[in-house]
Amino acid sequence: MDRSRLELPSAVLAAVAAAEAGVLLLRPREDPIAPAPVRESDHFSAEEIARAKAFRRPQRALALAGMTVDTAALAALTTTPPGVLRRRRKRPVAAAAATGAALAAGLTVAGLPLSALSRRRALKVGLATQSWPAWGADVAKATAIGAAFSAGGAAAGVALMRRLPRTWWVHGAGLAAGFGVLTTWLGPVVLDPIFNRFTPLPEGEARADVLELAQRAGVEVGEVYEVDASRRTTAANAYVNGIGATKRVVLFDTLLRDFSRDEVRLVVAHELGHVRHRDVPRFLAFTALAAPAALLAIAQVTKRLLPEAEAAGPRTVPAVALAGMLVGAPVSAVFNQLSRRIEARTDEFALRLTDAPEPFIAFERGITVKNIAEPEPPRWARLLFGSHPTTLERIGAAVAFRESARPAAR
Question: Exposed, middle or buried by CB within 10 Å (0-12, 13-18, 19+), for 272?
């Protein structure tokens, strides 16, 4: 048997195995609360369930169609590259940077019809609020940032390939991990303000609750911000981002406006759980652990896609991007296992910190209806895209917590 035929599948399997090992190493040691069995009809009306399915399922189809467009475009550029990519360059690294920028911008433009259709559907159901000109401005800003990052990545990748053709992926993995740390650190203070306005949570009931919960949780929360999410959407959310001096908890203004104090306290407690358990550094650690095997697999796929004797240059850029998509999809699905486990642990942390299962259930129901989300998406969608437990799993965990607390109260 020709062993070279086994190199590619072996490399991809090794990338998936390394990601699985990262999940096993970094996942919470304690098992989360086992959700009690609950039914959609126990918490949602037939109309609410039907509305969510009618909105979300076509949205997923549009997202998959967008991924298909990107994959097809990259495959076409790799297998039948235009003359501008085949041409020999005196400065191949600079040409690769220009190719990376053009590729990022071109893929955005190619996907605009699908993105616009998805947004039009969100406007129709009242989930999106931003005007078309404002949306276009955001797309332009995101495209410019993406093109800059792609230019830098393409230049660095081609430079490494030319200098270290056999081991470039080792150094590429280090650069990927370092880039993740850098963007996590700078994102809250450099990138996020380009798109939204962040204001420190003012003195008042909400801020007092945050500080009180942080003290009880035993965490240094950093700063707490309110973001003007309502300029784009009626959806509500909250998140933790940043590391070190840029660490912060961010609450959507729609969350503060549309939910009760007890419900907001639960969301804050959940985000404090991420801080307490250092989940942002945990996710960065996963990237560092998974990157070497993933980059090796990308190198093997790229090798199969391009003529072996050809030196790295502009033509290499779409091939590496295509390889990244093919390897990244299964690795991301594996990462979602870690994310779901962490989110379940943080839900339990919030329940124990607040001892408020009823507001938890009310919040999960309310935010699911508000965000027009499916309480229980299809299994394949949970496997590929589910970074959080489903709504029914989260409600079931609160029900189990409530039931477990009852004997102690007697």
Answer: buried
Residues 104-146 pLDDT 10s = 999 999 999 999 999 999 999 999 999 999 999 999 999 999 9
Q: Each residue of 152-201: pLDDT tens digit?
A: 999 999 999 999 999 999 999 999 999 999 999 999 999 999 999 999 99
Whole-angstrom Cα distance, residue 384 to residue 216?
36
pLDDT tens digits for 4-33? 566 778 888 999 999 999 999 999 998 889
Verdict on whether the full-model pTM lies above 0.90:
yes
Structure token pair of residue 239: 């998140």
In angstroms, the CA 271 to CA 176 distance is 26
User: Across the chain, how many H-helices and E-strands are there?
Assistant: 16, 4
In the β-sheet with 238-241, what is the strand arrangement from edge to edge?
Answer: 198-200, 223-227, 248-252, 238-241
User: Which of 34, 53, 43, 205 shows the shortest CA–CA distance to 125?
Assistant: 53
Q: Compute, in degrees rounded to 10, the torsion defined by CA atoms 51, 258, 275, 329.
A: 20
Read off the tokens for 200: 């420190």
